[in-house]
Amino acid sequence: MRVGFTVNGVRRTADGVWEGESLLYVLRERMGLPGSKNACEQGECGSCTVRLDGVPVCACLIAAGQAQDREVRTVEGLAEGGEPASVQRAFLDAGAVQCGFCTPGLLVAADELLERDTAPSDADIREALSGNLCRCTGYEKIMDAVRLAAARRREAV
Questions:
Q1: Which pLDDT score is estimated for 62?
Q2: The pTM is what?
Q3: Among 88, 99, 128, 152, which one is least packed by beta carbons within 10 Å?
Q4: Phi and psi dihedrals of 52, rounded to 5?
Q5: Cα–Cα distance, 104 to 146 (Å, whole number)
Q6: Backbone conformation region of residue 58, classed left if phi is above 0, alpha if psi is from -120 to 50, else beta
Q7: Residue 113, SS3?
Q8: C-alpha to C-alpha distance for 51 and 72, rounded to whole angstroms
Q9: CB neighbour list of residue 90: distance below 8 Å, 6 or more residues apart
Q10: pLDDT (0 to 100) of residue 137
């Protein structure tokens, strides 16, 4: 079947998609967007997190056909004019990136949080990132990065 949806502001289609094919597979293998990582394929780790109509979801759990005529935003879509987004810069500046496998999902989830709340509490940050697992950082640097991104967004307003 043919599947068509908007990815990072651009209308895209994929042909030959089988019924059970995941959104993650279509994004990575058919559309050439490898940012969302394929790890658990069970929705447990969050490394494949994308936004579907603005809501963070695990792309491995979404059938590609469910995205038909909808909006998908991936980690590649966070960049601003070819430059890293503020949340991406904050992750680098705070040392929140180690192996990098969980980073795309964390970035998408953190960006969604900061879009709706520019002054999140630590509990808000933990809740927003609760579906994303990291095995390297111990999460403190990730928390620091989200706090830094929030502060920078408030200063920019």
A1: 98
A2: 0.96
A3: 99
A4: -110, 115
A5: 14
A6: beta
A7: helix
A8: 6
A9: 96, 145, 146, 148, 149, 152
A10: 84
Q: Which residues contact 17 (CB under 8 A, 6 or more apart)?
A: 1, 2, 3, 26, 30, 64, 65
Residues in the chain: 157
Mean pLDDT of 92-99: 95
Q: Of 34, 14, 27, give the one whose Cα is nearest residue 104.
A: 34
**pLDDT at residue 80 is higher than 90:** no
Query: Could you count the other beta carbons within 10 Å of the beta carbon of residue 23?
Result: 29
Nearest one of 85, 86, 96 to 145, comparing CA atoms: 96
3-state helix, strand, coil in the chain (%, to 5): 40, 15, 40
Question: pLDDT tens, 14-42?
Answer: 999 998 999 999 999 999 999 999 999 99
Which position has the token pair 């990098």?
100
- Return the exposure string of 24-45: e unless at least 16 CB atoms fall within 10 Å of the residue's CB, then b: bbbbbebbebebbbbbeeeeeb
